[in-house]
Amino acid sequence: MSKIAEYKRLEAQLAEQLAALDKLKGDDKLQQEMEFETKLRGLLTEYGYGIQTVLDILDPTPSKKAVEPDNRRTRVIKTYTNPHTGEVVETRGGNHKILNVWKAEYGAEEVRSWGSNSHS
Predict the structure, then answer these.
(1) Residue 104: which domain range?
(2) For residue 83, is it within any domain?
(3) Which residue(s) pair with 90 in the sheet?
(4) How many CB atoms lie within 10 A of CB 114?
(5) Engineered SS bond to 49: which of 15, 53, 115, 120, CB 3.0-4.6 Å?
């Protein structure tokens, strides 16, 4: 595209945008919003409040971050069945009293092989 064609295209776009801006300046709704913003900013300055403080006052419900638990994964319940006694132990961790007794008697690797994951 030649420089003069680009210039004329940009000039036409600018003329359209200026016309749209002039039309918007005469809009009563815009005037009302601008007046509201000016008065609101004046009040914020007068009372020394920020936008976030005003939002907290208007909607005091705690933020989502404060309500949600941390993002740690819930441990899966693991079931261990002792093949020698038929005794069953369900636990979310490996430091269980009966498991520790079994590990001392049969060995940790052996007891680990008795475990299976549950879906709860």
Answers:
(1) 78-117
(2) yes
(3) 79
(4) 18
(5) 53
DSSP letter for 86, please: -
Do 7 and 60 have their domain in common? yes
According to DSSP, the residues that pair with 80 across neighbouring strands are: 89, 115
Same structural domain for residues 16 and 52? yes
Tokens of 92: 């979310």
Predicted pLDDT of residue 117? 73
**pLDDT top residue among 10 and 119:** 10
Q: How many domains does the chain have?
A: 2
CA distance 74 to 63: 23
Tokens at 91, concatenated: 């636990």
pLDDT at 116 over 90: no
Q: Which of 41-55, 66-80, 92-106 is least confident? A: 66-80
Same domain, 32 and 82: no
Evaluate if pTM is beyond 0.85: no
